[in-house]
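Model it.
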Amino acid sequence: MRGKITKTAVDKLEPTIREDGSRAPNRLWDTDVTGFGCLATKAGTKSFIFQYRLKGQARGTAPKRITIGKFGDVTPDQARAIARDLLLDVRGGKDPKEKWGGQQNRTVADLASHYLEEHLPRRKKVPRPATIRNYRILVERHLLPALGGRQVADIERQDIERLHLSMRETPYQANRMLSSARQLFVHAERLGWRPNNSNPVNAIEKYPEERRGAKKEVMLTPEQMRLLLRAIEDFRGDEGDPYAAAAIEFVFWTGWRINEVLALRWDDVDVERSVARLRETKTSEEEYRVLPAEASAVLLKVARSAVSPHVFVGRDGRAALTTVKRPWERIRKLADLDGLEGLGPLRLHDLRHNTVSWDVSRGTSLEMAGKAVGHRSRQATEVYAHFAPDALRRSANERAAAMRKAINSR
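Modeled.
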């Protein structure tokens, strides 16, 4: 059967049904690229193939075949582009199987590039940019320096185990590297770069680790909050970094995640109504947040950049602020919070726990406290059915007022 290989055509391709009811493989040969086809097996699995004969190869001999990849993992257009390259090799007198067959020449660096640049952006559900960025960091910082030049087909379990062992001092990162490597080699099998069921990461045990996001109870005392706010003001003046100081103060009053704060744009803020919209959150869905009056006051003090849509920008006032790690370390030292009784090293994320703790301490329900720091837009109807906007705004303001009252008390 011949025709243009498209997604629609491949979707319709089914195994051949014989007269006795049994199934047989069926093939669709592309009309644009000679030798490019799609094979539907008896089981219904569909793969893109390239079939060819070399110059001088006898007509009676079986043609050679290369499996490009499975339909779903490789698109028809991607497979056609690969087949076109293979056809050029054949016409140039080269046997592409020497390069493709077994993929002996494909390196881990090639695999990582294909996965990051070709596969992830084309997935049905594209990961969040932050997820792709973190994945890229793990691959480029750990996998590629150790294994980037090695051939994909030659990587064995002991290679991954050795790398995992070298990262044992940072078990969380070591385990994330392991997960990243597993996905890479799953992709290698999809592409036919490794035999099926040959993933070298299988059966490697992860290190025990403290679960991220585990419940942590943090509730700063009035004195601790007073010292923290004073340190923020000192940093704002002494360091001359008003945007970083404002971002951290905004976290203090709202309990938002720092990445959510730094992504905030002016056209998503309605200070008069005390509402803000976040375009990208940890849930990868749009969210709406109620702002307490103290947080709105922080925004009113922030000078708008003439060239950037973001609320919190760098010192030059042009590009969005991307991190407050160093400012936070400086503020933490200025406040000398680590030396106070009952408080270990304070993380910026602990300010989120502090916000919820102060809400709950006033008798606010856990559900209401959770809504104050973010709810999904698709559940907005449910949220506003249970809690009127005024109730959410009142709760946020009462919590901030209670914190302010405690801070000002002596």
